[in-house]
Amino acid sequence: MNLTLIGMPGAGKSTLGIILAKNLGLGFIDTDVLIQINHQQTLQKILDEQGYLALREVEEKEILKLNVDRHVISTGGSAVYSAKAMAHLKQISTVIFLEADIDVIKTRIHNFDSRGIAKAENQTFEELFEERRLLYLRYADITIDCNRLDQELLAVRIISILCDGKE
Question: Which long-range contacts (CB under 8 A, 24 or more apart) does 36-41 make?
Fold first, then answer.
């Protein structure tokens, strides 16, 4: 069993992924960290030097290389732009969309310009949010509202859904 967490930056993918991995006795992979290790650069540096489309391509390649079992996978927010990467993740895991309102995301993220968010230069955060939200919903096997519960309670809720097979 693998789980993949998708969602906007600030939705809690990495933090919740670690909690889920610990509680379920699974390994944990953060694809953003994987990119940084394998490319010896921060996401922001890749963005600055090669552009957002290059970062999305790097992300796709890293995801397609994943061949794991019994892991929680936390993806970068732009993983959903790759139909190939998402098909691979859906084949090897249950995909969970951590949905958070834009106002919640804005209170959690204060470093939009240096966080390594793969977006077009002229695209507003609001436009990016709406564009990605539709993609997250398209690929999600399960959608979890992350606006009101803390990470520990969200983990309990996800585990309950997985065990019961219903929300």
Answer: 38/62
